[in-house]
Design brief:
This protein is α/β, with parallel strands linked by helices and 328 residues long. The protein is 41% helix and 20% strand. It contains 14 helices and 13 strands. The chain has a nine-stranded mixed beta sheet, with helices on both faces.
């Protein structure tokens, strides 16, 4: 029931709350069609943007904004209160003890975590593992929520989810039922899917959104010379939307990213690759993790950038049942 929802820190309010405040259903429908599904999404949007919604006048927007202001706290609070809010953020287990330790619990809900590395370093494996662990009880390193997987490169494997579910003694059928999957075919479609995602997230308890890979389609759609700034702008829009979903619905967002050779790095340096996407991705991701190969099936994860975690690394292994502890 409702009590349980409270326990797992779901704090958004759906738009139908506004009918009690005299906003008519017709207007709410228009807002929903434009991708606004929660009171928070209205609170976080600008008057200018809301006025762009077809059929809603600026006067009406101002009236709705007034109502929403009373429903969503948006003033200053003390750092002590902010700390309490942060303690309420759940961590999703990665499936490997040392990796969870490195991340001080796991992948954080409410923000974006970026994982980058070369081919076959375990990025997609981590995505699949989290789709299962996010469904576990909070006491077992989960968040008791569903997962959403946006696949841009055709790497999604439901069979892998079955194997991971069995490893965690979960019913494979039920586990797969709890994962919503979409294949994006171009960057516009990828953007469109986030609109659909907002509608789905407002209807049900979700704990995770995966975008594997967040950057690939932008690279192929804007590959010509002179298209770089347009690509970065579109990518920034996409990540902004993702950040909104993470904050509004309290879900963990996990994005993967590729690396390119770093032309200004010395080739004999320890690592001569860098993640693509430049500053745009760097600023959007709260936590950035770098994956690289170790011995055999082992992989090494390094904290590349994080506001709270120290720069360090941990070993884990990739297996048929997802991310596991490193093999000696």
């Amino acid at each position: 029931g409702y009590e349980e929802e409270e326990m797992v820190g779901v704090s958004f309010q759906t738009l139908d709350c506004l009918t009690e405040h005299g906003v008519n259903a017709n207007d709410l429908q228009k807002l929903q069609d434009a991708g606004y599904h929660t009171v928070e999404s209205i609170a976080h949007s600008t008057v200018r943007k809301l006025s762009d919604v077809k059929g809603i006048s600026e006067a009406k927007v101002l009236k709705i904004k007034e109502i929403v202001k009373a429903m969503v706290p948006s003033d200053f609070k003390t750092a002590a209160d902010a700390l309490e809010d942060r303690k309420a953020m759940l961590q999703l287990s990665t499936g490997a003890v040392e990796l969870d330790k490195l991340l001080e619990g796991g992948i954080e809900t409410g923000s974006i975590t970026e994982v980058f590395g070369e081919f076959r370093t375990g990025k997609t494996q981590l995505c699949h593992t989290l789709c299962v662990t996010c469904q576990l009880a909070v006491t077992d390193g989960g968040a008791e929520g569903k997962a959403m997987y946006i696949d841009t490169e055709g790497t999604f494997r439901p069979e892998r989810l079955q194997a991971i579910a069995e490893r965690f003694n979960m019913d494979p059928v039920a586990t797969l039922e709890n994962v919503a999957y979409a294949r994006a075919h171009n960057s516009e479609h990828q953007m469109e899917l986030l609109k659909v995602a907002a509608a789905i997230l407002s209807q049900d308890r979700y704990a995770l959104i995966v975008v594997d890979s967040a950057t690939a389609l932008f690279r192929t759609d804007y590959s010509g010379r002179g298209e770089l700034s347009e690509r970065q702008m579109q990518m920034a829009q996409f990540l902004r939307q993702l950040t909104r979903l993470a904050e509004e619905f309290g879900v963990a967002v996990l994005i993967t990213n590729q690396v390119v050779a770093n032309p200004d790095g010395m080739s004999f340096a320890k690592d001569s690759t860098k993640p693509i996407g430049g500053n745009i991705i760097a600023h959007a991701s709260t936590t950035r993790l770098r994956m690289r190969k170790g011995r055999g099936e082992n992989r090494i994860c390094t904290i590349f950038d994080s506001p709270t975690l120290p720069e360090a690394d941990a070993q884990f292994a990739v297996s048929a049942t997802g991310i596991t502890d490193a093999v000696e």
